[in-house]
UniProtKB/TrEMBL annotation:
The chain crosses the membrane at residues 309-329. This is Serine/threonine protein kinase. SUPFAM superfamilies: Protein kinase-like (PK-like) (SSF56112). The keyword DNA repair does not apply. It comes from Saccharothrix australiensis. PROSITE patterns: PROTEIN_KINASE_DOM.
Length: 333
């Protein structure tokens, strides 16, 4: 049963204030991530995914704020890089976010289809080709935006009857930034799992190769995948993808060439970054405040020293004398 309508205030990637009327959606897609997830629908029928950090969860695990931070930064960067009328279907699209409230959140357009984890081993031959081409094209687009996804798994890659969409940017960083540790070693290179060195598009190539293997074969990849074990075609496609050194792996463009798939990247979109710079500064300010330990309460003031006994005696004598004078004056009246 759908919930009541309510207004949600947020900011878009230009830091412009927005408001949308939403309610809980009747059908909630499966979104597997560490953030709290809700499925919403707007009054106009637009379906959204709401990811947030509940207050108590953030208190127990402050690292959740960093996951949300990366999702917002990546979403905003993609919106600036690609024009609104030609935004790539292979990448999830951020709607907006709010980081000022007690429970910060990000709004994303609903992912298309289902996580490929739910279709692993079930793709037909032509679907396998379309899946691999769509995934490597998504990586090509991320590279054009100077982003490394850092968290590609069968749960963050979605499949919709012939089309791929990549979402879940909670581990995304810019190319050249320090690698972010990823606990899902099954789908990431050893260097990324250990958070060693600088992030590279080759990190995503390793992860994408592991996802392709699982999608095609239905078998989870090992820490050292061997594509040739699954046939000559798979071996030829993924040759070099799992090379130990990132520099020895092919690029996404090379993988697309092997698949004879088109390799086109849209022209740059919005080049105005002033508003987003202001938004990012505000995001950093709020994030630091949320990650800071709670301020210690000030110590209670020291107790007043006890008054000497002679002072108490003098005070009592003065009070008694004043009382006697008052009585005498009253009698004299």
């Amino acid at each position: 049963m759908a919930g009541a309508w309510q207004f949600v205030d947020y900011r878009d990637y230009r830091y412009q204030a927005r408001r949308v009327e939403v309610r809980e959606a009747d059908d909630a897609p499966v979104v597997r991530c560490e953030l709290a997830v809700r499925s919403l629908v707007t009054a106009e029928g637009r379906h959204l995914v709401h990811k947030s950090v509940p207050r108590e969860a953030g208190r127990v695990n402050p690292g959740l704020y960093l996951l949300l931070d990366r999702e917002v930064r990546a979403g905003a960067r993609l919106l600036r890089r690609f024009p609104a009328d030609a935004y790539p279907a292979e990448l999830s699209r951020m709607v907006g976010y709010d980081i000022d409230g007690e429970e910060p959140f990000v709004l994303v357009e609903r992912y298309r289809g289902v996580p490929v984890a739910d279709r692993a081993g079930q793709l037909l031959t032509e679907q396998q080709h379309a899946f691999a081409a769509g995934l490597f094209r998504a990586l090509r687009l991320l590279e054009a935006a100077k982003l490394v996804h850092g968290g590609l798994t069968p749960d963050t890659v979605w499949w919709d009857d012939g089309r791929v969409q990549v979402g879940g940017f909670e581990h995304a960083v810019l190319i050249g930034e320090p690698r972010v540790r990823n606990g899902k070693s099954r789908w990431c290179s050893p260097a990324q799992h250990a958070a060693e060195g600088a992030a590279s598009p080759a990190d995503d190539l390793w992860s994408a190769g592991a996802v392709v293997l699982e999608a095609v074969t239905g078998e989870p990849p090992g820490s050292q995948p061997v594509p040739e074990r699954f046939g000559a075609a798979v071996g030829e496609l993924l040759a070099g993808v799992f090379a130990p050194a990132a520099a020895d792996r092919p690029t996404a463009a090379e993988l697309l060439s092997r698949l004879r798939a088109p390799d086109t990247v849209p022209e740059r979109g919005d080049s105005a970054v002033r508003d987003f710079a202001r938004s990012r500064a505000r995001f950093d300010e709020v994030l630091v405040a949320k990650l800071a330990p709670p301020a210690a309460e000030p110590p209670p003031p020291p107790p007043e020293p006890p008054r000497p006994a002679w002072r108490l005696a003098v005070t009592a004598a003065v009070v008694v004398a004043a009382l006697v004078v008052w009585v005498v004056l009253e009698v004299a009246r």
